[in-house]
Structures are given as C-alpha cells and as structure tokens.
Amino acid sequence: HPRGVEILPSRCEATAIKCLLEQHELKYTVETKSNVEYISTNGRFPILIFNERDIVSGFAELLAYLTKKGYTLSDKLSENEKCDMDTYTSLITARLEALELFTAWLIEDNYLHVTLPAYTRHTAWPLSSILPFYKRRQVYRLIASQSEWYDVSGEMMLPETKNIANAISQRLTDTPGTFFKDKTTGEDIVTELDCLLYGHLNAIFMTKLPSFRMKRAMGVHSRLIQFCKHMESAHGMKKHGSW
Known about the structure:
This protein is mostly helical. The chain is built from ten helices and four strands. Helix 4 packs across helix 6 and helix 8 packs across helix 10. The mean pLDDT is 87.
C-alpha cells in the first residue's frame, strides 16, 4: 500500500484485491511504503510480491497471475455467464474507475482537501507541486478520451454515475446474493466480478470526501448496499467495512 494514502481509486483496488485473495484463501501481509506508485510496473497499486520474486501491480495483473497459476473462481460458469461477467467487469474497469478518478482528482474540494495532501504527504518540494499537476492532467486526458463523454464536468459525470448504478442494480436481484448462482443448489458462486464490484462499492460507500455526489447517486440503489452487506456477512468481507 502507499503510506498514508486514502485516495478513492486506490482504496477501491486495494479492497477488491483483498477480497479476491481471501476468496482463494491466500494468506498475505500488508506493508506501507511512500514510493509504491513508482515501483509499480503499470502505475497501479497495491503491489503484490509472490515468492519474493514475482511482482504484480493492481487487480487486473493479479487476476491474470492467479489464473496462470490455476486459481479461478469462475470455472463453474457457463460460456454465456462468462460473457456476462466480462461485460460487467468492463463496465467497472472502463467507466466506473474513470468516475472514481474524476471524483478524486477533478472535483476541486476533494482534490484540495483530500487527494493533494495524501498524494504529496511524503514528497518534498518542488516534486510536491510538479507530480500532482501531471497526475491531474493525466486523469483529465483519460476521461476526455472517452468517446461517449462530451464534457468533463460534474454535470456530465452525475448522469453517467446513475447509468452505471442502474445497470448494475438491474442485474442484481431483490434477494441478497452474488451475480451468479449454482444451478443445482441455488447457492452463491462468488466470482472475480463479485470481488471487483465489492471492492469498488465498499470504497465508494466508506470513503469520506467533502464533495461526493457519486456516493449519493449510488446509495439510492438498495440492491448495491444489500450486495455489500451480503458479501460481508456471507463471504467473510466484514473486516473491510461496517454498515
């Protein structure tokens, strides 16, 4: 983990990673360091080190690494269900993550009072001024490159948040559970998608920011809150948040 950093996007990724590791019953220890972002192979963190030699950065790389080693949660799914899982995974990684970056870096109150102090806490001047400037510009360019977003503003982001929340909520049911069920027993099948979604929703609902319309827009969907509560009570995620 980056030392002292509670920036929304990194908290989302960290919680999703913990969830995935725990579903595989893989033991881990957490260390905090001030230069994690610059050690990372792809700019994402947390960084995971396996067997003191294999370095993996972020949720996507961890998922690929575990799959290569024979660890998978979705082997019971049909091909149609796997396609469904890929669709919602893309929704989270391509669109929801962009909104989280926007919330942390481009909403002025959040940037000045939370993101900037956290990001520069262990950085001396002049890097404490230069690095956040370039990071913020990088985030703006990333969001501006989204072809369906014609305006990088709060007015554009709020409807997009509502659209994503609606899409995920409609896929879940009123009965608390995971995305997929065993067709024979009706029991939950916890997949990589559930871990990813839980990580993002938990961080969105639990992170405190001065301006957080994204949290309010998603919080009106009871199914999203029920999903998080179910993951915590039924699948061992309670240590990552309390409702």
